[in-house]
């Protein structure tokens, strides 16, 4: 068991504060005590960031990029250790943790291109002798507040982008998975990041609010539940700050009658149950066009689902680890009870999966058929290993259903028809859309974010939008009059 510290000025920082328990979701043992920062620690971290930021922004951009290259090398050198830490604290399998770290690393790699990304734009001769150009300037001190389900990847969506743009970054990680943040902080310091430029402030909602309200915080990046995203968007915007707040999801997969069901079922198993369904891009609804498609899909899913091994995340053979905590187990249980009570068919109830470990927050994979849009298990984000099957009669009906849902993060279609795929990609109201790809997570050189209640703000995270979010633009218009060969009026005096 560790007593975690905050991280300020490239060193551990402790204060006399209350602490929370960070429990291992796989067995309930105490992993760490997490301090809950109050105003004193918040002020220390932000003051250190303000102090360091100007010199950091003044460094040549290729020097900042060089530190990102070093950071990239250090993440690779400590790959296995980081993967184990992610898996230990969050509960996800080692394979999942590996995937998470890889996606985070890709953003670090993208940020290594800082000199190219921050080159600005130039227009020569916009009029007469006038040239005009736009420059990217840093914002100052920016804040990131991150969720439990990706302890490394989501912070890495933000940190490299904010830093290469010349900002200082304060991270408030999820209190449920606080350990990885400190390790990333140590690696950034080892990479050569100057003291004060990156801080970790641990704590809960109250800590997050103290940080959001701090007058020296210029921008807030948030990833988490929709209720918090909305509240943070309103709070930070009311304080005149720039905000990107990514919220929850209910991602639909539309299965057409002509789909390759073998492929659809194989990939849906990973998309619905990977990470125990605790992914913002998890597919939680399979919308089957025609009853026969639903029946056949379920027949393809069941043998695969029954083979899934639910076990302690660090066991190599585990396909699914535990949920994050007991509250999550209760929430999934309630969703299944309500589904049953409202008339859906529980084809598999994950609470009764055979061979569930006795200790820890384990729920096996659940499959619910004949789900109707009025049911709470359809309307709410369950955020657990539950796939709901909804039956419709046409692609139009599937699109209307998915588009009426309050969330619009990701969506996909399984089909062999180009016309259906084209109709789906053009009509689907979601930020990330896949064709025969159930988890259409954009690469680091695009940007990630949803529509509707899945994103509050204008700019997405990482990629080109990340550069835009973490910079303000200055456009300069310049004219130098040509020399006439005559001496100046001043010279004639
Ligand atoms: P959460 O909203 O409970 O907490 C996220 C972070 O916000 C934590 O650090 C927490 O301390 C802080 N927080 C919580 N409420 C707050 C408030 N009112 N004001 C300020 N800070 C607050 O989310 P979680 O349970 O950690 O994560 C799961 C949720 O995150 C799911 O809804 C999932 O869909 C969503 N998520 C979304 C994306 C995306 O890209 N859209 C990615 C990952 C997770």
TrEMBL record:
SUPFAM superfamilies in UniProt: ALDH-like
EC annotation from Swiss-Prot or TrEMBL: 1.2.1.27
GO molecular function: methylmalonate-semialdehyde dehydrogenase (acylating, NAD) activity
Residue ranges occupied by any Aldehyde dehydrogenase domain in the UniProt entry: 17-476
InterPro entries from the UniProt entry: Ald_DH/histidinol_DH (IPR016161), Ald_DH_C (IPR016163), Ald_DH_N (IPR016162), Aldehyde_DH_dom (IPR015590), MeMal-semiAld_DH (IPR010061)
EC class (word): oxidoreductase
Gene3D superfamilies in the cross-refs: Aldehyde Dehydrogenase, Chain A, domain 1, Aldehyde Dehydrogenase, Chain A, domain 2
GO BP field: L-valine catabolic process; thymine catabolic process
Entry keywords, A to Z: NAD, Oxidoreductase
One Pfam family in the UniProt entry: Aldedh
Protein name, per record: methylmalonate-semialdehyde dehydrogenase (CoA acylating)
Source organism of this protein record: Bowmanella dokdonensis
